[in-house]
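Design request, tokens follow.
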């Protein structure tokens, strides 16, 4: 499966937004892998975060983020605040936003097959023998991403989540 930069950058940007609005980010911008991060005790959403702040922290283009955030806003994942000190906030709690929803909002398909629904098929109009394997892989990836919340990523609750469904003999 190939996830384009559009999907990856959207997730990176919203993780940055969530971290800046809900937590106290580390001064150096780094986050330890699989580490629990402190949450704000007051439960506030924090101040709006500008796209330039997100772009600088994640080394992304502001122009590209503008395109992504327009899609994320239309999907109801972020809300904008205009004026001085304006920017973006999450439209819902980070616990209620799945990584899959973020990827879906920027029109990124979560598939692992090289054929698409409504097209002739894998090989000269026929399904290949491995089609179901790749189709199921796409479904597993989708299940995983739709069951991981933005809060899970921000708070380091990802490691150990990918478990095998059964052991082969």
């Amino acid at each position: 499966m190939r996830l384009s930069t559009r999907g990856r950058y959207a997730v990176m940007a919203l993780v940055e937004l969530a971290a800046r609005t809900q937590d106290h980010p580390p001064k150096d911008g780094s986050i330890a892998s699989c580490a629990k991060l402190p949450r704000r005790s007051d439960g506030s959403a924090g101040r709006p975060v500008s796209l330039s702040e997100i772009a600088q922290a994640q080394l992304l283009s502001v122009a590209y983020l503008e395109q992504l955030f327009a899609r994320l806003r239309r999907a109801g994942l972020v809300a904008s605040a205009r004026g001085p000190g304006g920017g973006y906030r999450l439209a819902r709690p980070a616990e209620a936003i799945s990584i899959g929803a973020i990827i879906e909002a920027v029109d990124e398909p979560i598939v692992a097959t090289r054929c698409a629904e409504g097209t002739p098929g894998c090989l000269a109009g026929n399904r290949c023998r491995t089609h179901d394997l790749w189709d199921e892989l796409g479904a597993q990836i989708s299940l995983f991403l739709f069951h991981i919340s933005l809060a899970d990523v921000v708070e380091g609750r990802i490691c150990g989540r990918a478990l095998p469904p059964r052991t082969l003999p």
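Comment from the thread starter after seeing the answer: thanks! Helices lie at 5-22, 51-58, 62-74, 99-105, 131-146, 150-154.
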